[in-house]
What we know:
The structure is a single chain. The chain is mostly helical. It has helices spanning 3-21, 28-35, 39-45, 49-79, 86-102, 107-119, 123-147, 153-172, 174-185, 191-206.
Amino acid sequence: MAQTDTVTRILDTAEVLFAERGFAETSLRTITSKAKVNLAAVNYHFGSKKALIQAVFARYLDPFTERFHATLDALEREYEGRPIPLEVLLENMARTVLEVPAERNSLKVFMRLLGLAYTQAQGHLRGYIQQHYGSVFTRFTELVRRATPELPDAERFWRLHFMLGTVIFTLSGLDALRDIAEKDYGEHVSVRDLVRRLRPVVVAGMNAPLPEPPRAVAV
């Protein structure tokens, strides 16, 4: 088996198992058994489980980062220093998110991995993502800040994470949601149909009135 075939088989197997079971619950032996390679092959090509986890993310985040930077470059040229509307930013982010895993037909896996990066990411993974991909997320957050000047920074932080949680939950459960829509409502929903429906909900959430401050409790 060629080296490139071995690496691809290991990565394909690892990303599915990580998405299904989580990082801690997926052993290298499980990966090698499913991929039909020996443990020495994983150690040779990746060196450690940590490096394998990072390589799995890199397959998605490298092309995503490159494309999203290019997309933001084009938007900034178009708007010539003016704030880019929130709905435009979200539409272009969604388009980029869909384009990258669509090349390998693995959107659901990508979304589950992003969810794991939030809920299970260990120090090495957080540091790796911040070091290699933090620039594009920082840039996007700054553009969102300019598009929503009325929001306090802390409130914008929470709303961005609520938005991300909604998107990850919806797209990682895509198959189940489409089954329900078809069986209960007779609708055949494509991924782009789902994003079209999701977008106004997310935009409305970002633009919702500020919550009232908590009332003082009498002592």
